[in-house]
Design brief:
- By secondary structure, this protein is an all-alpha fold.
- It has one domain: Hypothetical protein, domain 2 (Endonuclease III, domain 1, Orthogonal Bundle).
- It is built from eleven helices and two strands; from the N terminus they run H-H-H-H-H-H-H-H-E-H-H-E-H.
- A two-stranded parallel sheet has the order 1-2.
- The protein is globular, with a radius of gyration of 17 Å.
Length: 198
């Protein structure tokens, strides 16, 4: 049986968790606010680390952050922050933990203002997926004009730890950009999926 062509980034180290994430989640257009908030928090925790590290701790993050319920997270107090700082199963960074709590409050305000967080983040591309035709790792970017605009705008809404590079990773994860390489088997599958949703 012929091996499927995949994006080169997910083949490093041959980690099953990386392959599953690539094959099942990465680049799939997301509109569910709770899932969007989960990715936003995880991406901010990734800063300075590898995405593989975050994926390995994802289930622990879900437990620690109450399934990424923004309303509950926005109410975390100092006692909860101290507890999270002792939790070896997540990434223990006080600034990132405090940013997640702050961002939960900002997220809730965005929901009220725009009707949903999905409407807000997808507005940066007029609700369309940017489809790139990358062929190798050297084609990938760390930021774009759209991620710059998103980061700047989120900053005006009070979000923290959401720079342009994090925004671009977020956009890739939730399908605002389709950065699967041109020869990746998921490229065609996602194109079909987007057509079906129109």
């Amino acid at each position: 049986m012929k091996e499927k062509n995949r994006c080169p980034w997910c083949l490093k180290g041959n980690h099953d968790i990386y392959l599953r994430y690539h094959d099942e989640e990465w680049g799939v257009p997301l509109y569910d606010d709770q899932l969007l908030f989960e990715f936003l928090v995880l991406e901010s925790f990734q800063a300075g680390l590898s995405w593989l590290t975050v994926l390995r701790k994802r289930e622990n993050f879900r437990k620690a952050f109450l399934d990424f319920d923004a309303t509950k997270i926005s109410k975390f107090k100092q006692k909860k922050i101290d507890s999270l700082m002792k939790d070896a199963e997540i990434i223990r960074n006080r600034l990132k933990i405090e940013a997640a709590i702050n961002n939960a409050s900002c997220f809730l305000k965005i929901q009220k203002e725009f009707g949903s967080f999905a409407k807000y983040v997808w507005s940066f591309t007029n609700e369309k997926t940017i489809v790139n035709q990358f062929r190798s790792l050297s084609d990938y970017k760390s930021r774009t004009e759209v991620s710059d605009a998103m980061s700047e705008n989120m900053g005006t809404h009070g979000f923290k730890f959401i720079g342009s590079t994090i925004c671009y990773s977020f956009m890739q994860a939730i399908g605002i950009t389709d950065d699967h390489t041109a020869d990746c088997f998921r490229k065609r599958e996602l194109a079909t999926l987007r057509k079906q949703r129109k």
